[in-house]
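Per your request, structure below.
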């Protein structure tokens, strides 16, 4: 069996053969940039990562590397069943930009057995925006998200919207819009379950404020739910 460094080197070699400098230069994820980025497309990256044998410890090893492709590949190689509450801090520390949040949500987080606990923890008021975004997007991937999460999603959005309105930094506004995007995805998923859930979502959205990110949510839901 190859040791982690040898195995990582082989995977990185395969990634480097697919490098695309133009794509790398065009990437502008919200949040902390990567130390090294080969610009490998997500479909190619996913194909290469899924060819690897699932290995939680190896995935954690990759997640510690400051290379975009390796950090994203880690979410495909990690075994969801081993991502217990004690492991939340490790994975949370690595989700520092929008691309990492999205890939973690779509690939790994929504498959965590104790996801409701992760959702409650990562959408708490003191958590970084990137983890809140990841939790919202992951929840939207569930077949039947808990309708009780509607209020948590809107509370999370309101806090982000308030921060964005009170800050001059463009990044705060971008972060708030991403939180809104995550909230929209979750609310649409809940509403699609059956008409009763749709009515609960509509009533909740009726009390949403008029801050920029909140208006974005209202506009998105107006056509996605055909209000």
């Amino acid at each position: 069996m190859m040791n982690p460094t040898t195995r990582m080197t082989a995977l990185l070699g395969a990634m480097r053969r697919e490098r695309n400098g133009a794509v790398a230069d065009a990437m502008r994820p919200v949040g902390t940039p990567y130390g090294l980025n080969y610009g490998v497309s997500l479909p190619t990256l996913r194909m290469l990562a899924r060819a690897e044998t699932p290995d939680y410890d190896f995935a954690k090893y990759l997640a510690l590397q400051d290379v975009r492709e390796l950090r994203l590949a880690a979410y495909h190689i990690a075994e969801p069943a081993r991502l217990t509450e004690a492991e939340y801090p490790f994975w949370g520390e690595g989700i520092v930009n929008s691309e990492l949040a999205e890939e973690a949500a779509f690939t790994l987080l929504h498959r965590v057995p104790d996801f409701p606990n992760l959702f409650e923890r990562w959408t708490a008021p003191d958590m970084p925006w990137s983890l809140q975004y990841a939790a919202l997007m992951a929840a939207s991937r569930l077949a039947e998200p808990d309708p009780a999460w509607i209020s948590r999603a809107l509370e999370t959005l309101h806090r982000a919207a308030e921060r964005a309105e009170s800050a001059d930094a463009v990044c705060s506004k971008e972060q708030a819009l991403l939180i809104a995007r995550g909230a929209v995805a979750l609310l649409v998923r809940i509403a699609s379950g059956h008409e009763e859930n749709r009515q609960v979502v509509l009533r909740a959205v009726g009390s949403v404020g008029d801050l920029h990110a909140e208006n974005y949510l209202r506009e998105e839901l107006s056509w996605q739910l055909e209000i």
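The chain has a mean pLDDT of 93.

Regards,
D.
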